[in-house]
Amino acid sequence: MKLFLLLLGLSLKMKFANKNNDLFRRRLRTRTGSILIRTADRSVGRLFTFSKGHIFTKAERSGDADVQMVWEDANIAFKTMTSTDPQALFRAMDNGDVSLVGDMSVAQWFSLLIKALKGSGKNSGEGKSGKVAMIGLGKMGKGIARNIQAAGFELVVYNRTSAKTTPFVDNGAILAKTPSEAASLANIVVTSLMDDASVLDMVTAKDGILSGLAKGGIHLCATTISPELSKKLVEIHRLHGSHFIMGAVVGRPDAAESGELLTLMAGNEECIDQCRAVSSAYSAATLIIGHEPWLANYAKLSVNYFAVSNMELMGQLYAMGDATGIGRTFYKQIFESSYSNPILKFYAQKIMDKEYQENVGFELSGGLKDVKLMLKASNATSCSLDYAPIIISKMEKAISLGNEHSDWSVFTNLSTSK
Fold first, then answer.
1. 169-196: per-residue pLDDT in tens?
2. Is the model's pTM score more than 0.85?
3. What's the CATH number for 131-292?
4. What radius of gyration, in Å, describes the C-alpha atoms of the chain?
5. Catalytic positions
């Protein structure tokens, strides 16, 4: 009965927020979807349906929904959903007390609604993990840093181009002159850099992170790096007495700005609890991959391989349409109906329009680096990523044609220009 009343109360709170909470209202209008929250024995359940900015709810123990949140026990569900611990739901998922079944993009969006419903609050980060240092304020890093600061964490910033730190310092952040100084002032150091070389240098240089990070400190890496470097950093930090947690992010710069990234995290369980409090500031969801940090690297490369493989497929099919006279709009409709992930819809439009110089979120040079990492990972494990050599070849050719700084999907244009 308590869970039934709680879900009823949640529906009423959402309807109230739709009238009075501007952030909730804006996020509600970004898509449609449905989620069924129920117990495994189907004794309690409620269906939430969102359409065109409206909320429809009803008591429902079974039936279809885009995603189902299935609780093993009603009492655990009630206790978790009423907990003031922001990590309570994550722990329940880790313990197997609740499972999510269905479209994970809808689940991620629903978590953003709940986040808006609760309100981020300027002081929501205080007292959780002390100071957080952000190293790297590029296209992704600046959005990550802005959300960490907005969540109320004390922020320390360092960037090689110091001008990029100004907006954060003006808003109360501490400016560090070196990575070492930034690390010395923080409990958790988040890095958002370019590649293996930049991360390794930032950690091991004379004035790098390691020289300033206290024993027991945590390095949370949001950069896409190789599993091999991840393993190396685990050992480097272990010898130093600190911890390395991999927290690869999935999403474009606009998702970093709006706090809608997906974080793939792996590492020591106690450290993950601390890091998840930080990543929740800039992520709609944080998925725990395992206890070995390098597992998150393989997970991120897998996600990126899925994305880049579909780009190649889109390019091939658009090429067929051009050759046969089938309109590009037909293929765009097929892609949009087949893929619920908004990122793939974004690229379906971008590749259709051949818009590679505008709204560049990820440059081709960076994409080539990632696909080479994907192929290396495949060769070391399954040897199954057959698309990777083809994509690398096309990316290299696209770079030779002067497209290094274009959007990374520009290589698909080689399929349509034969």
1. 999 999 999 999 999 999 999 999 999 9
2. no
3. 3.40.50.720
4. 22
5. 300
